[in-house]
Structure formats: C-alpha cells, structure tokens
Amino acid sequence: MSNRLFEGFEPVSETAWKQKIQMDLKGADYNETLVTKTNTGIDIKPIYHSDSAPQLNIPARATDNWFISQRIYAGNATAANKKAKDVLNRGSEGVLFVIPNKEIDPTVLLKGLPEYGIQIHPQFMDLDYIKQVHDINPKAYVHIDIINQLASDGNWFNDSKKDHYNYAEFIKSFSAYFSQFTVNTSLYQNAGATTTQELGYYAAHLNEYLNHYCDTSKEHDAGVYEAFAKAEKRINIDTSIGNNYFMEIAKYRAYRLITKAIGNLYSIDLKCYITASPSLRNKSLLDYNVNLLRTTTECMSAVLGGADTLYNLSYDAFFNKENEFGDRIARNQLRILKDEAYLEKINNAADGSYYIDTLTKQLTEKALDLFKMIENGGGFVQSLFDGTIQRKIKESAAQELSDLGNGKKILVGVNKYPNADLPLQKEYELYPFVKANPRKTLIAPIVPTRLAESIEKAQL
User: Fold this and answer.
1) What homologous superfamily does CATH list for 67-363?
2) Least CB-packed of 116, 117, 140, 381 within 10 Å?
3) Three-state DSSP class for 122?
C-alpha cells in the first residue's frame, strides 16, 4: 500500500489519543469505564500505541511449520496401531500415543508407522521399555515428566531418589530429541490456575530439573547436564489452551521467552518444543456443540502464538468414548485452520501487535516474579510438599467459579443462553465428573476440574 494515502494525516501520539478519550468520557472515570481487570493481574487498556509498545525478540518455533497430531489412548496395541495408520491417511501429520502400562507391546504399537511425528507419553517409568521404543523408532519423541507425576498423582512413580536416577539415565542414554526434559503444564491450567500462574509454575518446574542436574560435584548428574547442554537438546512443553483468545496468543510467546531466560541461568541456549491441546476447563455437557466453537478459537490462538504441534479435543471427549465422528470433526477443524485459513503460511503472525506484545511482556515479567517467589520458598517441589501451589490454584479456581456464578464470566449454553433442546442425559458413556480416589499420598494432588461441573450436577 502506498504511503501517499496517509500523507494528509499527521501522526497521533499516545498522549493525544488518551486526551481525546478522556474528553469523550465527559467526566466518567477512565479506569472504571474502560480498563478491564483480569485474573492474571494484568489490566487491559482501551488503547495500545507504538509510543509505549515493547520491543520483543521472540524465539522462533522449533520447526518451520506447525503440525497436526492426534491423541490415541493405547490401551490395546493392535487397535491403537490400526487407528494411527487410519488417522495418518486422513489428515493427521502425527500421532500422540498415551501408553497406560508396560504390557503394551511397542513392537506391535509402532509397526509400520513413519519415523517422524510420533510422540510417546508413557504413564509409567521403565527404562527397559523406553529402550525397546528407541530400538524400533529412535526418532520418536518420548515425553516423561516425573514432577508432573508427583503433582497429579500425589506420589512419585517409585520414590524421589529412584525416579531422579531413572530420569538421569533417560536423558543421558539417547541422542537427539528422543530424550529431553518434559514439562507438562496442562495440569495447572485444567485445575484452574491463571495464565500467570501457569507460566510461573512452568518456570519453577523447569528450573527444578535444571537445578537438580547441573551440580557438577555429582558425577552422575554432571553427565546428565553435559548431555542436555548439547545443542540438540531442548524442552518439551505439554500445554492446554485456555479460552482468553489474545491472552493465549501472548502466553505461547511468553513460554519461549521464559524458556530462554531460565536457560540463561545455566548458560544454555535453551529452546522448546510446544505441544498444545484445548483445555477441558471450560467445556460442558450443557449445549455441548458449543465445545466445537471453543476448541476452534483455542486452537487458532495457539497456532498464532507459535505452538509447534496441536492435537484437538473432540467436543465429546469427556463424556463419550473415542468415536469416529468426534475424532474426524476435531481433526478437520485443524485441517481447515491450516489448509483453508492458511495459518501455515507465516510463523510470526502476532509480531507487531502492540496489544499482544504488551501482554507478552507483562505475562513474562509476572511469571518470572512468581518463579522468584517460589525459589525463595525452597523451589517448586518443596512448594508442592508445603501445599502452597495447590492452595494458590484452588484459590484461583474458586474465584473463577464465583465469577461464573455471578455472571462476570460467561460460558454460552451454561450460564448464558441455555439451550433447552439439549437437556442433560441421565447417563453418559464416560463419567464426566471428578472421581474420588481415596488413597495414601505424599502430597495433596492437583485435581483437574471442569468449571461447569457444579452447575451440571445441580441440574442432574
């Protein structure tokens, strides 16, 4: 576009804009009228201007493009393998296997699948099993997070000492991207943590690993640090996408800035690979078709924020068993974003947005401040044992639930515009609510909870 179109217009400063806004308010309070407060501690202003916009250097994606994947629960190796081949022929560019136990034969599970695009998420820690996977496909990505195991279950896989030893062996034993530190933050978001908390807990969670393995006085751990410090190592981040569109775009950009900042503490040029999927937090049984709209905008925000791999959540994932219709719709939502909205054509779509740049900077700063507080309290694991992390997430979740109840937070079909034509069913294929599992644990586990559960239960 020719600059001559604007030759007749003088540039308007941020100060001039604010003066004009204040004049048009005719005495109304600027902060009360136009500034929106959020649960992240960040106030959203009515205007963002180049005069005060930060200059950010966001690290690029780990890849040249973003990839469509599909999550497959591998409770049966033969069935999971068959499904993986099917979805790879029908629009998916990779698969993410959730493996519940070591009885699942990796030879059967991975037979005939491509080398690239395979993510392995074992729900157990077994080095012999991982070695089998490596022998079959050394270019797979294995995601193991022993701290997430503690936070979500309340117990380690085995115990702290053995888990850290096994994790060290895992990091040291394999080259390239097969073995990396994984930080799973989905738990925090799905339990009700704010975006600031999610990012701050990520920083502290990551630092827990680097701090544990960087002590060169420990011969074993020194080997881990040296292995990880090589250029080909990076951080796997498994995330859930929240519903605040612009805040989520900024969140994914902040993930990369925080990763780099934590790496600098250890003199490592640290990069990350981000896998994202829509959160269950805001999904509902009430007017469940709206879940399709939620997942679409959430996936779009993650793409624009720079996520590397996305796997979508089917609209009925939490109340129906895996089914062809739900999986196909979820996969095609991503194909539309990629093939018809052309979101694969540019890697830095959010660059230059004064609003998003400012949000990114504010989120990064607030997250690193929270990280420092956690470190002053003894670190992330110690905070879990103290119950501090659990308490803070519960407080945030309770505030969000209160906002839903008084109408400050809107869920269409739940507390606004309910659909009388889609009443709740008496029974569902899957139990859609939090299940109690009384047992002895080292810490109180962090429990994911959908926001609409209390309203749904009341109606049932």
Assistant:
1) Methylmalonyl-CoA mutase (3.20.20.240)
2) 116
3) strand
> Using one digit for the tens of pLDDT, what is the confidence trace for 301-342?
999 999 999 999 999 999 999 999 999 999 999 999 999 999
pTM of full prediction above 0.85: yes
Partnered with residue 182 across adjacent β-strands are 236
| 236 strand-pairing partners | 182, 273
Token couple for 72: 């497959």
Nearest Cα neighbor of 67 from 356, 258, 302 is 302
How far CA 11 is from CA of 6, 16, 362, in Å, comes to: 9, 10, 27
Q: Span 201-214, mean pLDDT? A: 93
User: Given the structure tokens 């201007």, which residue do they identify?
Assistant: 49
Do 136 and 106 form a contact (C-beta atoms < 8 A)? yes
* Rounded CA Rg of the chain: 23
272: closest CA among 236, 231, 240?
236
- Residue 302: strand, helix, or coil: helix
Distance between CA atoms of 194 and 361, rounded to whole angstroms?
A: 16
